[in-house]
Amino acid sequence: MDLAETARFVGETMEPWMRDFEGYEGLLILTDQASGTARMITFWESQRAAEQSRHGRLTMRDRLSETIGVQVEGTEPFEVAFRDGLAS
Fold this sequence. Notes:
Elements: H1 3-18, E1 24-32, E2 37-44, H2 47-68
Antiparallel strand pairs: 1-2
Helix pairs in contact: 1-2
């Protein structure tokens, strides 16, 4: 399975499960085939919603990364300062 296929698999696996978290607003997975890296970005209605789901998300992330054999380098919170062209 190539990187894009793996990313689609991860997204399709996680997205229905993520919808169970209150405040979940969406998921993006960006890939760079040349470097073999990917970035997953989740969107939340508030910092509080993201924090409340953190333990469950990290548990799922760890299980999934072990299953497909990828290394997670870290998790960092960011705030969206500007958005254009993405549905609300």
